[in-house]
Amino acid sequence: MQNNSFTSNSKWVVVQVGVGIVLAIVVLNIALHYAMKNLDTNGASASGLDSRQATDVLFIGDSRTNQGIDPRVFEEASGRQFTALNLGRPGMQAPMFYFLTRDYLENSPTHPKAIVVNISFYLLGGRQWFEDIYLAYYHPQFWQVTDALDTQLINTDEALSWYFGTRIPMLRYRKRVAGLIDSFSEDPTRAVFREHARNSLIANLARDEKNKGYLSRGVSAISGVSESEFASYRVGIDNGYSVYTDYLKRFFDLAARYRIHVIVYAFPWPLQAKAAPNFQEVLAHYDNKIKSIADGNPYVHFVEHDFYWNEKYFVDPLHLNQQGAEVLSRRALGWVRPYIAAK
Fold first, then answer.
1. What is the pLDDT of residue 343?
2. So where are the chain's domains?
3. For 86, which of 72, 203, 265, 294 is 20 to 30 Å away at the CA?
4. Who contacts 195 (Cβ-Cβ below 8 Å, separation ≥6)?
């Protein structure tokens, strides 16, 4: 009898311990989710990518688009005739163009009339951005994971981590927490306030729906940019990444199925880039490559424009400041107006 009582009590203790562990994990995940909202900019960058907001024009691209085209300026320039939404985000590559656009088109109540896209050639290869932001922070739909598996964009371990890891804060933020611990080791108090102040500003701007996906880089401008800033670019970045090319074609074909015009434009560069050795040749090479991928698609249009701009429009050699973003946003209206009006 005593043995039965002891066994029963032991089982009850095990159950209590198990429940306690589960509750502790749940509480820790909830606390981590709220604590990291203003301490992690990558998570903020991925926010809003599941937007279902109806729009006439969709902007897609990497951080240059995210921080370089202001939908509010675009809409104002159109006399509020058209609406716009910016789904560009840092490090966005061709697979995410396809995943995000398809998800948007399949779930939005209406479809855009035009998609304006910047395809930065230096993102036609490499995986660092894809792994650090999208595999770590973007919550994929099940079909996106299986599609990425089918094309061998990711392996099975990455697929499991992508689907489940991005939904569990303890897994989602493990690398960021480790980095914060290192930065806090020297001066914890100062580091906490510094990280919170810097990241909370970016996070709040990124999540503010009034910005419509746009993140302003402010009004400061670079000066004295050297040609050497652009000398490291070479042909061959895309070698070994044909899967990105395949996704880019699928992105173009997807838009065509919905009869949506895609306007491809070259993002502005500082004037000094024009004189950098081989830079124009590299741009021309990848411009021709992208055109060959879209060849025969009547819904894909390539914009010819002067994309070497005065340095006063740039906050750094890659990104526009607010003044530059306003110029580009108004210019984009001229590119899409013929296709919007014709539909």
1. 43
2. 37-342
3. 294
4. 39, 180, 183
